Amino acid sequence: MIHNVKVSLFYRKEAIVPSGQINIWSWLMLKDEYISIVERLRKTSDDEERKRLKNSLPAITVSGMFSRRRADHLVKPSNLICIDIDGKDNPSISNMEELKERLGKLPYIMYCGLSASGKGVFCIIPYEDYRKHKLHFYALEQESKDMGIVVDSSCSDICRLRFYSYDEHPYVNFDAEVYTRTLDKSSAIHLKSEFIAPNKSGDRQILNVTSKSLSLREALLQPSNLDFASAVPLSKTEETERLLNLVIERRIDITSIYNDWIKIGLVIRNLFGDKGLDLFDKVSSFHPKYSQEEVEDKFFELDEEKYRASTQSLFEIAAKYGIYK
């Protein structure tokens, strides 16, 4: 049984440095405040709103723990791969519940559940060798193609994010077989599919999610997987992002002193430019008199000629609240 596997956790899509780590099963069965975002995402027909809601969800790297979200910064592989099957790429597939049941007949499917949009499914599969991640993916891609299913090619990226989703009835096989096949992309060989293999009694099940509610914040407060990567130095920008991630996930107001708030905003703007507004807004949101409009106005008026602040000043401010880089 695959049970104690931990993966990196990112509180938002743009994050480069993980916020923490979480057990893969805890993540898959997570019942949190993000369920309401998933429900809104599945109901709206507005493309921009769907994109905004999806990007506000936390995410994990299914294939392991990373010190940074780059393939060459893998710290500890999970030997798991995630493949996405999107409804828009498979117009002939309309019933995702039936698709989950069909995919469950494959002996190597460990988990299959609805995507955040509800218009697709994702499957998590244990594989033999993380060093052959792409070759395992190409084999799975070809098998799926032989079954008339198109999978998202970006799943070949070992550090690809999997957004939070929720499924009341996921398909689970705690004793899934380890996938051993590989395929060179240049090969024209089609792999024989086991798609019609009969289901083995007792091996797999439709799981009714009744697990104990787990707070994502609790997961984020676990020891960080960055401890494993202490030998890999972080850049000043990455150190800052890591620190601010902790502030956000612990929901601590470090902006109660006006001059500190200005320094925090200036450091963020200097390092991240205009893209840092979202980060500044999240850090500011824990103040009792928070105003999104005021935060935005202040962020864009910040100027190095008017205000002085170093990155070190941000670390010193955070340290006053028990948060360290």
Describe this structure in words.
The protein is elongated. The strands form three sheets. Strands 6-8-7-10-11 form a five-stranded antiparallel sheet, covered by helices on one side. The protein has helices at residues 24-28, 34-43, 47-55, 96-103, 133-146, 216-220, 236-250, 258-272, 277-284, 292-301, 311-319; strands at 6-10, 20-23, 59-61, 64-66, 74-77, 80-86, 111-114, 120-126, 161-163, 171-172, 205-206. 33% of the residues lie in helices and 14% in strands. It folds into two domains: 6-217, no CATH class; 234-319. A hairpin with a 5-residue loop joins β7 (111-114) and β8 (120-126). The chain is built from eleven helices and eleven strands. α7 runs parallel beside α11, α8 (258-272) packs antiparallel against α9 and α9 crosses α10. By secondary structure, it is of the alpha+beta class. One of its GO terms (molecular function) is hydrolase activity, acting on acid anhydrides. Residues 255-318 form the Primase C-terminal domain. Residues 53-171 form the BT4734-like N-terminal domain. This is VirE N-terminal domain protein. It holds the Pfam family PriCT_2.
Distance between the termini: 36 Å
Mean pLDDT metric: 83
Low-confidence parts: 188-204, 208-214, 223-232
Quickly count the domains: 2
Number of strands: 11
- Strand order of the biggest β-sheet: 6-8-7-10-11
How helix-rich are the residues, as a percent range?
A: 25-40%
User: What percent strand?
Assistant: 5-15%
Give Rg in angstroms. Answer: 22 Å
Q: How many alpha or pi helices?
A: 11
Q: Largest sheet, if any?
A: 5 strands, antiparallel
Helix and strand element order: EEHHHEEEEHEEHEEEHHHHHH
Shape: elongated
